[in-house]
Amino acid sequence: MTEKEILICEMIDDGYTLNEMSSNLWLSPKQIHQKIQKLTNNGYFINPIYYDDGNIKYDFENNYKKHTVNISLCDSTKFKALVISDIHIGNELENLSYLYKTYDYARDNNIHIILNCGDLIDGNFTRGKQLISDIDSQIDRVIKLYPYDKNILNVICFGNHDHSAYECGRDISLALSKRRPDLINGGYGVSLINIERDQIVMSHPLNSISFKPLPNKLILEGHHHKMVVKINRNNFLINVPPLSDLCFGNQENPGMLEMELLFGSGFIHSGHFKQIGIKNNFEIYGETNLEFFLKHENLDEKKLILK
Questions:
Q1: Which pTM was predicted?
Q2: Within a domain: residue 53?
Q3: What does each C-alpha distance from 96 to 102, 141, 147, 183, 278 come to in angstroms?
Q4: Is position 57 within any domain?
Q5: What is the DSSP letter of 298?
């Protein structure tokens, strides 16, 4: 173990954030992240802890869960995030300006978490035509052109187009985790987001893997390329609009959701959702208030996969 790696381990034990380690060691956050990845590859179980102010801390643990992300709140009464989906980098209808606008909106509104519901790349099949068909080039395009801000974290639930690359031997989640500490792997198909004593779910249907039903949850789902809110006695399902010009339906527009969840005693009791169009200026298309009356039981990812 090198001297820098020893110092990093000591700082992890002392509770330093990624940005604090960067300042103390005169290395960029990306360089610190790469050294932590090297330690992980050498057998150390180092799990990240994400904070809703954009900070990352680390902890030594004895296991790793690939579909579970823990977010700690600085203010235990509320959690605010932007929710996006279906960027489809590589498709001719990608529009990276929408992504840059999302970051501008986040900075202007003091938002540090972006929840990405999948289809980050177009993969090996498409609707329409592809600007870039080579999967490695699509992934490189994400690494180089996806905006970076040391105070903004993205949790990504990878979708069916992302998974098509995995089926071709290209694991975008692994490629990003090596190069971009701000682009957090939430797993393929479903992500369990633990917040305080509660849990929400991000999902994106896959072609070859099925998951068990997710009762009693707030579910943010990509893939459908249109904004829809569905409520039944078992869960609240919100289909997220696309952040690209791949819009399905005559009335749909590219955009995002601004989400604020309110907590009491560690549990979510209500939420406010704002659909924001992004094509020209930021335009509010609709707002929804939800009261949650759910059984607050956290799911274990080991029990989710059917086949």
A1: 0.89
A2: no
A3: 10, 10, 9, 16, 11
A4: no
A5: P
